[in-house]
Design goal:
Length: 223
Amino acid sequence: MKNICFLLCSLFCLPIIAQSKSDLGISLGTAYYMGDINPTTLFYSPKINAGIVYRYNFNTRYVFKSELNYVALSAKDRDFPDPYQQARNASFSSELYDISTQFEFNFLPLIFKERKLSFSPFVSTGLAAALILNSSSKKSFEFVYPFSLGIRVTVGKKWSTGVQWSFRKTFNDINIDGVNNSPLPPSMNSQLINNDWYSFAGLFITYKIFDFGITCPAYESKF
């Protein structure tokens, strides 16, 4: 009888169980910029970040993740005591629409199970691109390198939540802040390369989608 049940589950239940590995959710946090105006200060001039996140859990450790984020950034030379920056007096405000696909690795197994909590630190990386709208009404689209780290917690069979800190390295120095890549006056023609970065950190919450509640005693998925 158990073998018959297993066969029936293999034919009908497993496609639905596989679909239940998918999570959809939202994120909310703060964003900041690092570049020519702000070379070293973390979380300087924090602005809003909001996003949508989709995860496909291959197993308890490996995850495919796709994100769409809205990121606001701003900075002013006048906020820093450096004499050159005070004289330059540059400033900007930009909005970014950031999309990424990443592979995420959990250091501990994450299990979706009723009346059970599990948690794990994670890291992720992959490919990303950003549509940048700056205060000079200039639009640009460019690829960026994404890297994220955080902690994720599963809550029962359907929910997960956590915190994430994401970094984006651009391959252009001027599109976000409008400032050349040199800390020296342009007349000195410096060849230094100092591409801009932006980062965002915050909370996320996801809910398991495509879970139709079909289970089988011969095959019980952890996801």
